[in-house]
User: What shape does this take?
Amino acid sequence: MRAKIEGDCDLKFARVRDAFAENFNKQGEVGAAVAVVVDGRAVVDLLGGYRDEKRTQPWTKDTLVNVYSTTKGLMAVCAHQLVSAGKLDLDAPVAKYWPEFAQAGKKDLPVRYLLSHRAGLPAISKPLPAEALFDWDVMCSALAEQQPWWKPGEKHGYHAMTFGFLVGELIRRITGQSPRDYLKTKLAAPLGADFQIGLAERDENRVAEIIAAPPPPPGAPNPLAALMSADPESVTAKALANPPSVSAPGVSNSKAWRRAQLPAANGHGTARALAQVYGALSRGGEIGGVRVIAPEAIRRFSEEQSSGPDEVLLMPTRFSLGFMMSLPGASMGPGTRSFGHPGAGGSLGFADPDAKIGFGYVMNQMNAGILIDQRATALIDAIYESL
Assistant: This one.
């Protein structure tokens, strides 16, 4: 049975509809949505499939889904709002805003290293109990005490979970608002974007179930898993499994995960919301008469800060100040200034300031990749073929 695709699609972008349908028919998609904004105008807003693995609950226009690290891009926007307002200095020590952070040789570590994954704090070395992940104060205190895994600034490595606590605590210290509340009042609400860190209890009935990625074929290499099992004290193992709840099976469908404040990993939203945010960023920080950030901030989003071998992921990665940038085999289209962020399993939001494109893709069937996967790539290719 072929998937039923619903929603709106400009005739010029019919290829995107075709690619979206193909993801269901040939790529194992269960439930998903894709949205595209071009120069402030919505040209694609499509959805299809089911919210649950048993395929009994249709994906609807207001279905929310956990987007994992795609959350990081929106948190980066929040931090840059404070930079543009003169409240956060990228070159000031983190300890200026968070005095306890000065421990363990971090007194002079600058803010920009947190955003560019150069801080050497992708993991906490001391073992933490599973419940620590959901306790903001415990996680921030552990990071304040943590000695960097490498000399800050000399290398980079993906701060998979710690990014949210590090950047989020800066926001909290400066504004007095939790990152959850700050994002809601200063970014999501002004744009009317249906996106939240964590999940409000009232929205439980419209959230999609995350479906784990299928196991790799027998004999297929899995270098991350191999390293984690071979050396549980490595920075990779600690980053992805300390606290152990980070990688526990099914954790993202638990109420503990959904309700928690995890600004690196548990944003819940729609493809439309991501396209709205990145649609604003693609045209100088404004859309529909609403300005979310100053134009000069957008230039920072496209300035490479880190590139090459990643100390945590053991593959090449490339970052600006809070955003991932295109790599061979993980491209956000042909634009040289494109920036955004993928999420584990497949979700993606990005902006192309040259083509003025804002893109959002969300789904509930995870794939095994960490960077941009083939379903998003097919959609991106179709967009640029349609221009």
